[in-house]
Design goal:
This protein is about 25% helix and about 30% strand. The protein is α+β, with helices and mostly antiparallel strands and about 100 residues long.
Length: about 100
């Protein structure tokens, strides 16, 4: 909805995906769950990343990648590239709940 409002006002939006390399996430059905991105994330996505230092934050800019020919790219990875402008990976996350 915000993208449409920005287009109407002839402005731009930025879409940022934040995720952790490891940590906890809250699932409304299962409660708090631990995860490790090296095993839980789609392998095609991880193969596209450079080797990551697990102790620092990483900022990945998808905008230049959109200019490339992406014929043989996994659909999930392609969806991330065109759905977000930046991907911020943090070393560890802590899941939160609304209550």
């Amino acid at each position: 909805m915000m993208s449409e409002l920005a287009q109407f006002k002839q402005q731009k939006t930025v879409h940022i995906l934040f995720s952790g390399l490891q940590g906890e996430q809250f699932n409304s059905l299962l409660g708090m769950q631990t995860y490790d991105a090296r095993t839980d994330v789609d392998p095609h996505v991880l193969q596209a990343l450079p080797s990551l230092d697990e102790n620092v934050w990483h900022l990945i800019d998808f905008r230049p990648v959109r200019q490339l020919r992406l014929n043989n790219v996994d659909p999930k990875l392609k969806s991330m590239i065109f759905g977000f402008d930046f991907w911020v990976l943090v070393p560890e996350t802590k899941g939160v709940t609304a209550f």
